[in-house]
Write a structure and sequence with these properties.
155 residues, 4 helices
Length: 155
């Protein structure tokens, strides 16, 4: 009886292994079918999309699009020119030359300076004679002369 039970057990294990293999194969085939179905749906939808795009583009002409884009560009340029003309200050009295205005301003400043110079009172010249240069001042003057000669020689 024990031997019979062991044989049955082995048979059942073999059947279980076969059933497990069969289930694995069926599961693999089911996944393959699902992938095939998904691919078919994707392909079908891509075909619908291609047909829809073809239908939409059927009435479009590249030359017409280029012409339209050029028209848009021209109109944008016209709009910019109009905007520039409106915002330009020349239409409101800025027709004066900048150089002429600067020259006139300099002339007015010079006249003001001349007028101010006429009103300046200088002190009177002293009537007494100045003392002679002290020795230290003469020595400084000699040193300065020597430095000038040295600078002239160096350059």
């Amino acid at each position: 009886a024990a031997l019979q039970a062991l044989k049955r057990k082995k048979r059942y294990e073999k059947q279980l292994s076969q059933i497990d293999g069969t289930l694995s194969t069926i599961e693999f085939q089911r996944e393959a079918l699902e992938n095939s179905h998904t691919n078919t749906e994707v392909l079908k939808n891509m075909g619908y999309a291609a047909q829809a795009m073809k239908k939409v583009h059927e009435n479009m002409d590249l030359n017409k699009i280029d012409d339209l884009m050029q028209d848009i560009t021209e109109q944008q340029d016209v709009a910019q020119e109009i905007s520039d003309a409106i915002s330009s200050r020349t239409a409101f009295g800025d027709e004066f030359d900048e150089d002429e205005l600067m020259a006139e301003l300099e002339e007015l400043e010079q006249e003001e300076l001349n007028k101010g110079m006429r009103d300046v009172r200088l002190p009177s010249v002293p009537s007494t004679s100045l003392p002679s240069r002290p020795a230290s001042t003469r020595r400084r003057a000699e040193d300065e002369d020597e430095m000038k000669q040295l600078a002239a020689w160096a350059s």
